[in-house]
Amino acid sequence: YTGxxxxxxxxxxxxxxxxxxxxxGIGVGDEVIVPGxxxxxxxxxxxxxxxxxxxxxxLEDTWCLDPKEVEKAITPRTKAIIPVHxxxxxxxxxxxxxxxxxxxxxxxxxxAHKHGGEWNGKKAGSIGNIGSFSYQLSKHxxxxxxxxxxxxxxxxxxxxxxxxxxxxxPEGDSLIGADxxxxxxxxxxxxxxxxxxxxxxxxxxxxxxxxxxLPAQNATRDxxxxxLNGLLKEIPGIVPLKRDARETKKAYFNFAFRYxxxxxxxxxxEKFRSALEAELGIIVDACYEPLNNxx
Length: 295
What we know:
Blueprint: E1 6-10, H1 13-23, E2 31-35, H2 41-48, E3 52-56, H3 67-73, E4 78-81, H4 93-103, E5 106-110, E6 118-119, E7 122-123, E8 130-134, E9 147-151, H5 154-163, H6 201-232, E10 238-240, E11 247-249, E12 257-259, H7 269-280
Parallel strand pairs: 2-3, 2-4, 4-5, 5-8
Antiparallel strand pairs: 1-9, 6-7, 6-11, 8-9, 10-12
């Protein structure tokens, strides 16, 4: 579905980010560039592997990583970039992949909000070295919990499979296979120290059925998003997120827009949200708190 050679399920989206970092050999002394506006797990998993997350500002019109700020943040210790495709927007993967290539950096796509989205005809999770997906309850492809990693790299696929499965060598011929594996395997088949991060078969069965419905659901969300954008852009003080022409398939997680209180006589955003909720009968919630504001 994503157009990659390997997709490996795990217990949740946080773990998929962690094992992606581990598979790339990122650890003590390394720096990983992450957006300052994202769910805390994007940065927390970098800390979990004993590396340092470097917070970089986002673009005003997409709330995704600002490529110019990414380039400024690169140091000799930088090993990877984690672009997050946030809400209904896509990170500028053309610019990010160009930066990564020039500086010899890995790219881990955080696709927790972008199941089925496409950038220039390539699906989210197929552009960087590794893609990370979440199937948590709020996601538009869900089994209550769960996650997966995607990659075209055979060696990375074997490491990722082992990291989610207590370090065991991948079974059967689905990946490299026992006779062509990487590393020095012990008698018990283990070659990486790791924990048990396997998804259950019950969750996987739910996800298989959900995946069949996802394209039609994404198309409905896209049509609704375009309709809402068209109406809201006519209201002073309301600015929808940018719909980039390079997004060849849209995938909304939540519908988001910017609010400028000066156009509403200084009305606080909290009161604005409360008024919208009372008028519409739906939840109007805050976006993620910028990570630099969190203790």
